[in-house]
Every structure is written in structure tokens, then in C-alpha cells.
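sorry for the late reply, my laptop died twice this morning and i had to redo everyting from scratch. anyway the thing you sent over, i finally got around to it. pasting the sequence first so we're on the same page, its 306 residues, then the predicted structure underneath. double check i copied it right bc i was rushing
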Amino acid sequence: MVNRAVFHIIYDGQALQNNEMDVKDLAPSLLALSDLFDEANHILNNGQTKIGLNVKASFKTGCFGVELTVVQDMLSSIKNLFKDENVLNAATIATLTGFTLKDIVKPTLISFIKWLKNRKIKQVELLNNGLLRVIVDDESIEVEKKIIDLYRNFKIRKALEAAIVKPLEKDGIDSFACSENMPSNNEQLFFSISKEEREYFIAVEPEDEQLEEVQTEVYLQLLSIAFQEDNKWRFTDGSNKFHAEIKDVEFLQRVQSNEIAFRKDDLLKVILVIKQKITNKGLRPDYQVLKVLEHRTISKQMDLPF
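ok and here's the structure:
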């Protein structure tokens, strides 16, 4: 089962008077919108549908407009689809993100970000009607939980930044707008973002989330040594290669004063601390050598029956 939703994005400004736009500006924006809908569909439908974005050029005098079609393929059967009220169709996803204006009063992802204006959220309250009240300074707004889920997703925020902020940074491009239909001279049913408002859509890097910390005694083989302060040494444990920060001050002082000499493939027995954290690039480990217990030089020798 396939359903569709059509909307338009319009860039306006002096640089677009001939209905032409640099492909270096347009292509990243369209690719970002494709990523946005793919990620939004993943969040809202939990992998039950597949979604794509098709493009068709359309023009209005003095600006550059693009017609986009959200194409959604229902992976579940029609019978199961009608039973599952949680599956959102393409039109609903386009409305929640803010690219169509089915209900112009209802907050969408884009209108919520514009309302927020980079202000820090003070408090979020769950209301009896299922909505969330977001409190900022002395103002508040009621939004669906789905909007907040989309807002918190870093991939979606980066996609909006690429589609809105990057083009508006160019000289001669003054506004971005989205609408279900291309606005005519007497029709103003569209949502616009000015060049001055573009900063609201810059994605803020989320803080890393610490998962767990493991401490263990292990032999590590030296691959490279960093003699400059704060540089990380490179090791292997026999299966993985990684950089680790040396926290043993006494050991580092001995290295700096040339009390310790190293040879190729030397071993260090250490207390190794492994910290796992979630970053915007996924799960990443961080290694620290807390204490160096032993330094060994590998030298293979033939065993004799003494």
C-alpha cells in the first residue's frame, strides 16, 4: 500500500529573480529533507513503513520553488494497517514536521522551533489531554509529544539546518517557505522563515551520555608514543587498536626525564579504564591508562633444558 503527500519549498531573494538556484545550494538541501523524512518516519512509525522523497521543479516569478512528494510504502498488510492506529501516513508526517499546513494553528516541528527562538526550555509538563506544555521564560505552548520527539532528534535537527540555515546564509537568498501548494499572488497560506530567523534552526550538539565504566588489568602493546602533553598513546590489546590517555603522572615524568627507554613492540601492564558513551555519532569508547604496573621488552629466545 502506497500513499503520498505533496508540499512545496520556496526560496526567495534577489539572487533568485531568474528562477535559478545554484545546485551546490539546492542539492544538499534536498538530500537533507530526504534524510529528515526518513528519520521522522523511523521515529513516528517504528520501522513499519518505508518512505522516500521525490522532487519536481515548479516556479513562481521572482523565486525558486520545488515540489516534493513524500512517498510512503506500508510494509504491513492492509488488514494489520487498519488495526494499528499508531501508523502515521505520509500526509500526517508532512503536517507534523510543518511542511504542509493542514491546521495552521496547531504547533508543528518547524513552528515550534521558530517559537522557541533558541531559548532554553525551563520545564515540560504532561497534561491530562495527552499534550505537553513546554514552558520557556514567562511563556508556554502546548504541543504533541510527537513534536518533542522529533525536536530532540539530532539527525532531524541537522537536516533542518542543512535545508533552511545553509541556503539562507547565502547573499541574495532572504527567506525559506513551505506550503502544501505553490502560493499565488492572492494566496498566502504558507509558513516562512526569514534570513534573520535562520539561527533558530541551527542544531545544537547534544551532550554525550555516559553509559558505564570498566576498570581492568591488562597487557597492552605499544604502537606509538606521544611525548607532547595531553597527546594520546596508541596501543593494541592483540585484537583492537586504540588511543589512550596516560593518567599516571609518575610514569610520564620518568618518560620525560629519559629514565625509561622504549623498543618496538614493548609491553605495558596497566590498569585500563574503559568508558562507554553515546555521542551524536553513535556508541564510542574512551580509554585511559590509570596506572602503569610493568614495562616489558619483548625478546623471543630459544628455550634450553637447563
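Residues 16 and 22 are 9 Å apart (CA to CA).
thats about all i looked at so far, will dig more tmrw
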